[in-house]
Amino acid sequence: MESEDRLILEIIYILVGLGLFFLAIILIVRMSFVLNNKWRMSLIDTYQTLLAQYVNAPEYTRAEEIKRRIVRISNTNAKKEILLHEVANLYNNFSGRFSDTARDLYQDLELYKLSIKKVKHLRWHNKIEGIVELSLMK
Questions:
Q1: For each of the chain's 138 residues, which pLDDT tens digit applies?
Q2: CB under 8 Å to 118, separation ≥6 — which residues?
């Protein structure tokens, strides 16, 4: 009888240990998603501020300085993807000088290369996104 109780107790310990292990994994994954989302939102705010300053820059030298800051921030593909999305939104939501400036920035920063890369991607939704970006920015 005592060996059966000991076996049941060991099984309970194992199950509790596994439960705590999976709970820890879930919490770690959740925290990484929260931190990634916070980073992404912060980067979007930074890009929106810089893009607003860029399209409203009164002089050429100021615009070039802002463009250099944007290039310095956009040092990874993930950051360039976010920038591409923000430039496309700027182009799509405005007209006239603002949309022309957004298209020029798209060309100057060679963001079209990311769109072409998406068109060559295996997943169809990435292909569609690349086609839409290329057709939008002409």
A1: 678 888 899 999 999 999 999 999 999 999 999 999 999 999 999 999 999 999 888 887 788 899 999 999 999 989 999 999 999 999 989 888 888 888 999 999 989 999 999 999 889 988 898 888 888 887
A2: 126, 127, 129, 130, 133
Residue 27 structure tokens: 């919490």
Q: Which residue has the tokens 């057709």?
A: 135
Give the distance from CA 32 to its chain's centroid. 14
3-state SS of 105-120?
HHHHCCCHHHHHHHHC
Question: What is the distance between the alpha carbons of residues 62 and 55, in angstroms, rounded to a whole number?
Answer: 10
Q: How far apart are CA 53 and CA 77, in angstroms?
A: 23
Angle of helix 124-137 versus helix 97-108 axis, rounded to 10: 120
